[in-house]
User: Fold this.
Amino acid sequence: MNEEEAKTQAVEDAKDGIKRRDFLQLMTGAFAALAAGGCRFQKPAEKIVPALVAPEEGLPGQAAWYATTCGACPAACGALAKVRDGRPIKLEGNPEHPVSRGGLCARGQGSLLDLYDSQRYAGPRVAGAPVDWDTADLEVIRALERARASGKAVRLLSPTWASPSARAELARLRARFPSLRHVVYDEPSLQASISAHRLTHGRAALPSYHLEKAKAIVSFDADFLGTWGSPVQFTKDWAARRKPDVEPGLMSWHAQFEARMSPTGANADLRVPVKPSERYGTIVELGRLVAQKTGWSGAVPPSGPTSVSRSVLLQTAAALVAERRRAVVLCGAADVASHAAANWLNHMLGAYESIADLERPAAFASGEEGGFDALLAELDRGEVAVLIVRGCNPAQDHPRAADFRKAAGKAGLVVSLAGRPDETAKLARIVCPEHHYLESWSDHDAHGGVISLSQPALSPLRGTRGALETFARWDGRRATDYESIRSYFRSSVLPRQKKTRSFETFWEDAVRLGALTLGGGAGKAAFIPSSLPALKAPPVSAFGYEFIAYQSVALGDGRQANNPWLQELPDPITKTTWGNFASFSPSDAKSLGLVEGRVVKLEAEGVSVELPAHVQPGQASGTVAAALGYGRSGIGVMAGNLPVVKMLPIDFQPASGADVMPLSRAAAVTVGLLSRVERLTKTQTYDHLVDPLLGERRDHARETVLADYLLNPRAGNPAEAKAHSLWKEHEYAGPKWGMAIDLNACTGCSACVLSCNLENNVPVVGKSEIAKSRDMHWLRLDRYYSGPPNALEGSPDVSFQPMLCQHCGNAPCETVCPVLATVHSTEGLNMQVYNRCVGTRYCANNCPYKVRRFNWFDYAHADLSANLALNPDVTVRSRGVMEKCSFCVQRIYTAKADAKVEGRVMRDGDVKPACAQSCPSEAIVFGDLNDPKSKAAKLAKSERSYRVLSELGVQPSVHYLTKVRNKRV
Amino acid sequence: MPTKTFVGVFDSDRAILAAARAAREKGLLIRDAYTPFPVHGMDEALSLPPSWLSRACFALGASGLAFALGFQYWVSLFDWPMNIGGKPFDASPALIPIAFEITVLVAGVGTVATLLVFRGLLPGKPADLAALGATDDKFLLVIDGQTEEAQRAFYREHGAVRVEAVGGGAR
Amino acid sequence: MSTSHVSPLREPLVDGVKDLGQITRDVCGPLDAAPTAAWYAAFAAALCALSYGAVMVIHQVWTGIGTWGLNKTVGWSWDITNFVFWVGIGHAGTLISAILFLFRQKWRTSINRSAEAMTIFAVMCAGIFPLIHMGRPWLAYWVMPYPNPMGPLWVNFRSPLLWDVFAISTYFIISATFWFVGLIPDLATMRDRLPEGWRKKVFGLASLGWSGSHRTWQHYEMVYLLLAGLATPLVFSVHTIVSFDFATSVIPGWHATIFPPYFVCGAIFSGFAMVLTLMIIARKVMNFEGYITLRHIDAICKVILLTSMIVGLAYSTELITAYYSSNHYERFAFINRIKGPFAGFYWMMVFCNVLVPQALWFERIRRDVRVLFLISILINVGMWLERFVIITISLHRDYLPSSWTDYSPTYVEIGTYIGSFGLFFTCFLLFCRVLPMIAISEVKGVLSYARGDQDKESRHAH
Assistant:
């Protein structure tokens, strides 16, 4: 970046009609320094250590990878930050990380853009006015002193903060201000599981699950492949047992009892729609059947209502008992009783001896019940002198946010550590903004026995400050995060490991690898049968529809609501972008007379929200589900559309949807139909493999069942007809790049989609363009329902199919381009030459897979500082040219160059396209099809392998592996 | 040699055709005939050989075809061989349409150009005998190698409505 | 115009016995007189449409193709539909002037001039669409294989779109040449009857010093014959190549071997319909009832009837092929036309192109100008729909259901289409005003042969 660029940015700015104030704000950020000349982006002052083998650091154009820890959610997965010319441009999973072991979810990768959010605070503020740190600190310290004097309460409010050194720092602060208490809440929360374990095992802890050991998984509303707990880790473990061709007995059986269709349910072998009110009853019923089979003699919890057929429960019980010690029951409910019953099941099945680990519990959720409510009470009584809010947004992200907003006024002083403006920061008198996690040092012990360390990937872009340093200052010390964490590691972590005595070596390793495994852990926790009879079935609501507020894969709890990449990421199940919706079961929709897009009013306890309706096959009737995190107002331009330079004004379409957080505690809501219709903006408008007119099923997404597969590995996958060619095929002397995608491992989590967007500078086009079916994603996840298209009841089979350019050997797109803008490489790549393209779109029309994307406009970044996240290795396409998946050709060439430098031939696995790298379940394998030893070539030859539309003779280079469902019927 | 050339003005194709035939029988040398539309039988009357432009047209077409095919093969075989849709470099069937179009183009435009140049039909060139209405409803006959009297007499006896003298002669 | 026997039993090609001078006066007269009110009205309307279209095109080029309703699945719709539509219309002109000439159809003489003009203007309209449908029209010249300093960098001779480029430009040049060659004698006629002045000078330049010399006439006739001979296969090749855009693709509903003949017939069909429309207008506006007689109209109707039935045959053949192929995608493509979201367009097309023309079996209708005008308009609509059905309906639901979409045009697309009509009629109305609409020399020839038959008989006797 240099001055010219800063200037051109300014020009584009004007063009995009961004207001002068915003522009100045931009300048205060990254660009101010740019204008001052020279490169602003630099390594942090402290010594940071690149992962694996270090390249010559700071070489212009040279990318270095730094191990860090993803801060997008409490799961704290290991991540690698790709730093180029001093600025992070990509986040990927850290294969060295003991828990996540490579792979990073969509939200994790998207969090990179939050770093470049131009709305982040440039420095501390008092009463909205920018001040210097000392002023801010002084005021806070004075308030704290007063509180100590008057003995009034000081409260720190935060979500689960699994950082040992932070805890140490807080302990110090508490020593100085005894009235400080740390109130923790997560919303939505795993609290119920913790409480249940206190009940059934006398230990308030969340077991860490080792699903790779599970041959039978039964989950009740736990979306563990999507948003529940630690999805990346769970997906990896789950997927390890979804590959039938590795060894015959490996494949696991997975049943999902849930109300809404979650990604996890979509991947289950058996999926049973169950209303929340019947969850407890179902678990207990299942428990009783298991109890019979396992000869459980102890106490039994009281039964509750359930409508699940006995045969289904018997089948499930049988499957579980058959896999004792290798079976586990997961529960994602918010009520303790269901969890306790689930724990009982796990105990009977011996899950606690293998899969569910209470000795080294997970810590990505903690806190105590009712903490938040208690705090509200204190606030109301005016007992709180200082309220410090860190990492959460209680004015929005809690069901009682409205109460909080009222109560917060009664606090003596509200201090927010938010890095960017949010609802709470607006209430706070003082804002002490903390770094983005990529700018700061931190440590995490979210997973039992593992401490992961995250180092900054660049020095702070703004005048922000690390949270630990802030606390240290208030404690009257001048310790940076770096120092605090080092001192904690020296005093408390170094002794706990045996590898080395020297702290510096130890520290260097820890920083380089990003995580270290430590022994230890608590002892066994015995099951307490007497806790069972006391359980109470949760009350069944008399009226309306049972309400489910869930986290979407794209936005989670909504803390990243201003992130355009995530807003435009299609929901894996509904394929909806830019907004949430109220989804109903087909039968309810019929009885209500609902069509998709019809706006409904959900009302409970005087709170109401209006959402467009969506009809979801497989949803339990009698329920309505809506995603959290959408509909936040006043937090950024991204909630809206993107500006496109046009002569005439374009149809501006604000992101639809509403914030359902206020309703999220309601068990049931009443549904009222409004006259309004808001079309959902979907990237896929037809959902079925069966066509609507002839009723014939298309076999793009092939599948079979395990029983058939074991008899005949080609089951469900008829061999490709021998293609006859009129002419001699071209030879590929060197490598012929190709891909194998395992439909059985793909969970539809969409991490690959986002990874592809980041790597290849795929533009975000905004809601109104998506509404015109103009999404630009190079890699899309097709989701098909099979079974009768118009079924009102039951749960359809769901299959996911990542669809990208198939790099056909006989590519139809190449033949038709008049100017040779798309041609074939000698390595089998179908190349798109942007410079040569004149944009006839003939290639896209003639592509049987419809994976080519056209630049209908100049897609400007609404937030220009987002340009800092662009990948310099990939051209930013201009208006009027065609683009598409390139198999990450830039990575292929980088790998070649590296191999050359190291004076060796390329090895299998040297090249990992963004999609393959980010896939938590390793469903995507890339490699040289000409090399018989390469993993991709082996998979391509397997009996499960087929190529979509190969009958056209286009010779695709992408092979799909038939989905094998482990159905027991 | 006559100082003047005389033009016989007739008012129908039949009249001028008869006159022309008569002139031929007499062995008179007919310089040219000017008519609003091509009068048939005039060719024999003027004893003109059949037009050679058809042969020119064929030659032009053949060269156009050769060029088009040659160029396309040169590009796709030698100058810039590209793997396009996995097809062979010499994808001959694909070269036919353009070869055909070029053939027609060269033949058509070339033949017309030849006509215009060969017959001296060029912008701004003054027309012969424009005043006498040969482009409207008059038919003009110009014979050579006779005395003034003989010319006048011939035209009259063969039903010319008028006889006009044109200075210098028309060519 | 070589001699041919025209039976006196046949209706005369021109009504009312006229002498040669009268023909000249009749045809050239209107050009000297001030335009009629009808002409002004028509011209004003055409000009408005043209300027509206111009604004739309500027807006679209300035802003991006995104101003159209296209999407990731439907990459072509109105743009290429209009392109094929206009090219098709052009074909009738060449057909009338070339093929009917080769078949010695004397009746062509009084309409071929305006039919050829129609061709040229239609091809101009057609040419616009491939140009502006590009994402980067300012680089359109890249489709030309020209020597360049970028190392070997040529065009793709395998691409039907490139074949189009050559076919359309050749077609335009040859048609224009043919038209001009036919015009030369009449330009001379204009030149000679105009008083001194700038118009005389202009016609003087344009008529290339034509004097009616028979030595020139002889070669002229040969060249005209050759051009006719070249233009005839050209017509067929052009629409064959246009149909290749679709026939050579892999999209069900496009990928069909029947396309070349099917498209050529469709073109002739739509072209003659448009000729009919224009002739009916022209003979009214320019009072040419005597030259463009009911017999001409009748002959045109018969051609329309024939081609309509061929087109109908093509439709049914497509369906049967799809059914018989037992290929799921093929079947679905056609079921989707008949029963899918755009079914209305399909049935409207069948109504206009197959059912309506059946009325032309009846002579009473073939000679009722008002009804014919309506029919000709319906056929034009139907033929536009045919292209829309083929292009859009095949695209919007192809192989993978995940990428199925709908399509609806924006005001920009519609405006551009209207604009193309504006261009067409603006050009045509100007043509009516400045050039002889009827091939004077040819009509004179025809007239005199018709008169001269008797004595020809006698001559052949001895």
In short: Residues 1-9, 453-462 of chain C have pLDDT under 50 and may be disordered. The first helix of chain C runs from residue 20 to 32. The radius of gyration of chain C is 24 Å. Chain C is about 70% helix and 0% strand.
